[in-house]
Each structure stands twice: as C-alpha cells, then as structure tokens.
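Slide 14.
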Amino acid sequence: MKIRIRNFGPIKDGLQENDGWIDITKHTIFIGNQGSGKSTVAKLISTFMWIEKALTRGDFDEKWLMKKNRFRNHFLTYHRLENYFPINNKTLIDYRGDAYRFIYENDVFKVITILDGDYSLPQIMYIPSERNFISYVKTPNELKLSSEALNEFLTEFNNAKGALKNAVHFPINNLSIEYDKLNDVVNLKGSDYKVFLTESSSGFQSSIPLFLVTNYLTNSVTTKANNREPMSIDEQLRFKYNVDKIWADENLTDEQKRIAISTLSNKFNKEVFFNIVEEPEQNLFPDSQLEIIKNLIFNNNIIRGNKLIITSHSPYLMSFLGVMIEAYSLFKKAEKLNNKQVLEKLLEILPSEVMIDPNDISIYEMNEENGTLKLLPDFEGIPSDENFLNLGLKNSSNIFDQLLELEEEL
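Slide 15: predicted structure.
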C-alpha cells in the first residue's frame, strides 16, 4: 500500500523522494510540528482504506463512487477534510491499495482495479486524539458528538467494555480494569483503592479507551480469522446476485442501497486489523508511554497483515521504536549463532512479541514550513537522531548551556 499527496491542506509538495509515494508499511509513523499534516495524511489513508474495503465488499459500485463530488462531499466529510482543497484546484491524491487504485486529480475521482494478490478484508479503526473526551463524561451515550470518527470510536469503546467479563490487567501503575455493566462505569482498581475512569487522571482517560479498543478489535479479528470459512462458489454467486438485485431496485435511494448491501456483506469475516492512532503518548509519563507503545506493537504483530499507523510529537516514542528495532536485530543474530544465553537475557529485557523488524517500519517527518515530508534515514535500521523531535530536545540543551555560561560570568 502507498499514497502520494500534493496540495491538500498543509501538504504542499508532499514527499520529496520515491516519486512522492509514501509507503504504508506494517508500522508507519508520522512525526512533526502542529499543523504539519500528520493527521491529514493519516485520515486520508484511513479514508481510502475504508473505500477500498467497502468497494471490495460490494457496499457500492465504481460508477456510484465516481460520481462528481462524491469523494469530496461524501467521504472526506467523515474526517472533516472536505475544505482542505486549495483555490487553484491543483490537488493530487493517489492511493494504491491491494485491490484498487484511487486517483483524485483535476476535480475528477478515478477508480482502477489492480488486485495485487489476495485482499484481506480489514477491520479499520481511527482512534482520534480527542478520545479522552468520552472518558471524562459519565454518560457518553447521551452525547451528540459532531465528530463521526469520535462517534465510531465511542461505539467500539462501548463494545470493548461490554466484552469485559473479568478484570483486565493494565500495564501502567499495576492497575486492573473492571466494568460495572449494571451502572455502565469503568473502574480502575489498585492495590488498596478503586476509582471511576471518569474521576481518574487525564493520562488514564486517554490511554484506557485506546488500550481496551485496540485489544478488543485485535482479539475480534484474530478469532474470526482463525475460524474463518471462505465462501463457497455457490455462496459467492448468491451474494453477487443479491448485490445486483439491490442495485437494480429503483425504489431504493443510493443510501438505502448502501445500507442494505453493507448488511448483506456481514458474510465477510474481517481478517486483519488496521489501527490508526493519533498521539498514543497523550498525557502520559515517559515510562507509561513505553507501556502503551508496547501494547500497540504487540497487537499489531499478532497477525502478519495487521498495520499500525501512528501520529506523534513524542521524542520518547522515537527512542522506544529504536530500542524495539535494535532488540529485533540482536535477537536474530543470537538466534543465528544459537547463543541461548544472550537470547534469554534479551527476552528478559523485551519480549519478542514487541520487537520490530527494521524492514517493517517507515518513519516520516513533516515540515510545516513548506508542506513537505521526508522519510527519516536510519543506520542499520535504527531511526536517525537527526529528527524533528530529538532536535527539539537538543535545542533545549543548547539553551541551558548558554545559561550556564552566563552563570559563570556572574
């Protein structure tokens, strides 16, 4: 999968290499300043992933999708991107997935069937940075949320809560999570105390919904993938017949047709999980950030086809990713040399389930000044220290050095 973007929102010239193509690898990270376009890219990827899934599943056909302004006024409104087009109308958005290629250029939306190998139907979840909002209030079901992404996340959060039968261990502060179904409240239980999630710190209000939804959807997809029985030829023919019948019904509106086909499409089991997370480090202490990142990587590594896309401001996240990549490299070397002593010591430091193959990760740095991206260079797979986040820390150190020099003069 890959995407290239020019002249859309804060993205101007896009990626300055690889002919502009941003590769969407197993782990894809976007870092940069506020307003640099991290979320814009992540939201576009999420949108195209969903369109590809829906088109493959038969929720609508290509003709319906390519109607004038359908992409702009129907699909981009989900993430509030419909007003990101420049006045000069020079936007280019080109997405190439496993089944389809979508091109938006000169105000025209094109669909090209490519079918590169097998297409695994994904469970797609966009986890917005505003997620702590749903933890803060006691009755989120009564809210009328204007953000469709937040509303969908709320739905999955409620599903994740309902699936909790017993207390679940939470890796931060050695807590456990309990759900009181009768009163519809999530409790955090420590060694000698219990508090409502709504009364807990902002870090818990941000990380616990992320933790529960990620675990719930990963487990859901894993269970379905393990128990999946492919549709027989006869079932496929019946499915196609019913889809064609719905589209031919002139008494139904396009929206009613879409809903009917989506309901019919439940025959398809989701096989992989695409998790798109804004700012997983939100409101968290560095050690807590590590635990959340480990949980995200762990869930992403469970199924080979899973994908994790992250937007972040955290220099600690960059450091943790470097650790996970280096651990993988050491693990493979020790395994090749059959050095069991090193392997044991390594696994005491970091479980193999959260190690990252350097070939499976891409880190892109955004530049808000000129609206460009660049693929962060690496040394033997380890992300370069010369990045936006680390340079911010370096700048703080330089200022402190200057202050120390002044102190000596005094």
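Speaker note: The longest helix spans residues 202-227.
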